[in-house]
Amino acid sequence: xxxxxxxxxxxxxxxxxxxxxxxxxxxxxxxxxxxxxxxxxxxxxxxxxxxxxxxxxxxxxxxxxxxxxxxxxxxxxxxxxxxxxxxxxxxxxxxxxxxxxxxxxxxxxxxxxxxxxxxxxxxxxxxxxxxx
Length: 132
Fold this sequence. Notes:
With about 130 residues, the chain is α+β, with helices and mostly antiparallel strands.
């Protein structure tokens, strides 16, 4: 039987669990390394963990996806530009319609004010001829 290479591990070997304190968590705000048991950063007080909205698993705040269900933990940060635009301006047509209506009413009221309060031209005299 051949011996396995030094960098290969046997097929029946299972990975050993890592102690919680040996794997520190770094803060997303100040990049300070914190013990894994800490809920908040020891330097700045920022939260180190975020809870998945789908499965409820506690994940490191710097992770982009949940370790259990792979759901996006920070959905707005990873939306494409088109999706952001659609989400931010979903009432764009309604806003454009309201702005158009407001401008139309403004023009209508200003035309009425000009008609009502400007003096009428004197039509009793004939127009003067301009010298050429």
